Task: structure prediction
Amino acid sequence: MWRKRGFGATPTYADAMPIEFSWPLLPSTVSPTDIAVTLNTGEVITPDAAALNPNFDFNERHVIVVFGDFGNRLVPGTEGARYPVSIAIVQDDTPLMAVGRNGPVSIVGLTSASSNPYESGPQLVGARLTEFTSIGDFAPAALSNNAPNDGAALYGDMADFRLRLFTSGGFSPDGVSGFLPTEFSRFFRLEATHANGQTVIIDRDGVDYDLGVGTLRVVGLAELGLPVEPGTTIDPPYYQEDHDNYFDVILTGDADAVARLTTVVIPTSAEAGYSDI
Result:
């Protein structure tokens, strides 16, 4: 039923694919007929359904999730393999619009090569560092089961800065469970440049790191699930995360120190203390 309400259709046994944009999209213009998926066979597929779900928050509108028959499970290069090779935004009755600096603009004509999940899993697409604000960090009431889950809801006045991570698909520690707000040091680390030019590795939350012009501290992760009462044990199988393409690393400290951040790293389990995503 949620698929009918959220996507306008109920595809069965369909392939799902996220399509990401650098600008947010105007929801009222999103339609399956905006998108043409070209397969390696030369077939051009129009999705059966398309919507912004599960990126419900008003500042999370950069992703369209489409459902349709986009291929099979054979690895590229294998005889009979069928998979997407490119995506195009095409003209229909209502052109797909992105919201730019000066208002909505048509993005008809945009194209991109498509990766194959058997060649590369979800990846970190980008990271944006800003002063923290809760503006836009909520969804329409009917879609807000996991809200509020922003930095202010989880950490209050400690949320000074937000490092928003944008990923190519929903991440999970094990393919089922969600991330916990306390798991920064298990899955991520940051790099910054000290005032003396040396690289500083930031791999723990709750620790003050001196960058020569002040300090910064990772408070924890946000944009996951609802706040948990202090003293309550939260276990991955029972923690309801929103499973979208956004993760926030919440920071506190001096602005000059935070500005010296340079890199987000997603280590692998080959490095001691880390787990694969």
